[in-house]
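ok so I'm stuck.
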Amino acid sequence: MPKPTVLVVDDEPDLVELVSLTLERMNLETRSAADVATAQRLLDSQHFDLCLTDMRLPDGDGLDLVEWIQRHHAKVPCAVITAHGNVESAVRALKVGAFDFVSKPLDLGNLRKLVSSAIRLAGRSGGETSSHAPRLLGESAAMRELREMIARVARSQAPVHISGESGTGKELVARLIHDSGPRTDGPFVPVNCGAIPTELMESEFFGHRRGSFTGAIADKKGLVQSAEGGTLFLDEVADLPLHMQVKLLRVIQEKTVRPIGEAREEPADVRVLSATHRHLAELVAEGRFREDLYYRINVIELRVPSLRERVEDIPVLATTILARLAYRARLEPPEIGPAAMQALQHYPFPGNVRELENVLERALTLCTGRAIEPAHIRLRSGFHLPEATAGANAGAAPADAAGAGLVNRLENTERDAIVRALEQTRYNKTAAAKLLGVSFRALRYRIRKLGIE
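replied:
not stuck anymore, here's the structure
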């Protein structure tokens, strides 16, 4: 097997020599170019596994070379060398398609990590995931476009912000980005930013040293360090308090982290993905989210479409979800009758795929035959089924009506218990979840499902 080859583009001989020696010790071949024109000729004439370019070159800008590579040699990862502290240049480079960046003076440890990730990426058939990875179902135009974007951003190390309504599958998108990129062998660490109490947030994120505060009886590794070499997914990032936003900004910009009680910062090799169902730009305008952090995590934005924007995907989604639910319950999966499918496709699903799964789980419970009919489809009050479907619904069997009544009574009992817990904790959801013995995420889901808010 030939050695992977790296093209180093810089007009400083000392820096080229330093990088070349470092890469040769990694068993890599190197070629060098002092300007954009020479680099383009080399890229056209032979195969490279990575291009590493300075931002300032005698006949142009490093960004020009990045854009040219994106157009003519898109499978070659391109990383840029930026001046120390020049965050704007780094962000611009990532936006036009750079794989990653490294700052001067070069930290050789960071350089080696960057190069290793890029070489792994070049060796993969871009955008492919393992057969065991979760999939985004649907062949609508919106979903095809989303899958194409995931394949593209997976090749970069740029921060990605995933926006979309609750229940659309933002965490699934984040996992697919991780699984499709060079960090797939590293950890994927999801963090619900709204589920961590404010007073514990810094310790949870960055860790602490023994004796750094009362109760710190041992060293603790933070969530950032747990994602070393992999991906840190910040779900509901809009819930981060302002003081934590400042600290997170430093982690992303400087790629370092300092545990509580530690005098020195430690390197942090993590890719940051974030998500929220709220509009971050509006929160920035209101002063509730830092503008500098917004632009740093929003280098690339992916929007996950709502279910009502891809109605044509409901049949395949519903069939797949129902089969999974039946398998868990050790039941033979029933079919979804035409009238029931019509009802699903006419309903706007404000809770998106998560609500579809909930509706089907209830339908599976109520169904006593081989097919799910409109009588088994219990949708939110105030929604009227199409006329043909409503007629079919009117002819439901008494047993189905009795089953529906049982489900409604159970939901009323559950609703009362949640409301009492919220009142007892003065509507602190974290405390209420602890009181009920469930996770914060589960409580939030049940609150939305039962319409308590």
